[in-house]
């Protein structure tokens, strides 16, 4: 009687462990799919792939502009802010080009190097932009990214999804997939030895 209870408990444990392993594999596949339709297209779409050194030529704050400068923007998302324009000397080609914070900055407003998030306090926005401008004037040489193909003549300060960020995004589903497969394999090995011992 006790032996039957132990066997039943063992089968239940194996079933739960098997379900856990299959659930982990299924969740990891969903995460792979989510990353594949969200992050990967932005990564492959970016043409600013080569890294070089940029030297600041001038950093000026122009009159206030409205953000964003894209089509289909709602009125509540449009707000005025000082327009920071940073021009740099591209070491790779020696050209004078405009610097943008990220790829998204160029799409939101190609006239400004930095586009702030919407804040209720306009003084905070102004102070932040002035701080960024002073930092560019203070640290005049820094790494930046440019388009080696030449389709984009401007440069960006940082990529939204760099290679390390993409690898980090794939790290967690990979660990989950590996753990799920390992649990399934261990359950199958346990079942095999259980059948083998019962047969003997």
UniProtKB/TrEMBL annotation:
Which Pfam families does the annotation name?
CaKB (PF03185)
The name this protein goes by in its record: KCMB1 protein
Bilayer topology: Multi-pass membrane protein
What is the annotated localization of this protein? Membrane
Where is this chain primarily localised?
membrane
The family line of this record is: Belongs to the KCNMB (TC 8.A.14.1) family. KCNMB1 subfamily.
Q: Which GO terms describe its cellular component?
A: voltage-gated potassium channel complex
The source organism is Regulus satrapa
Entry's PROSITE patterns? PROKAR_LIPOPROTEIN (PS51257)
Record flagged with keyword Transmembrane helix? yes
Q: Which UniProt keywords apply?
A: Glycoprotein, Ion channel, Ion transport, Membrane, Transmembrane, Transmembrane helix, Transport
Listed under GO biological process in this entry are:
detection of calcium ion
Transmembrane ranges, per UniProt, are: 20-43, 166-187
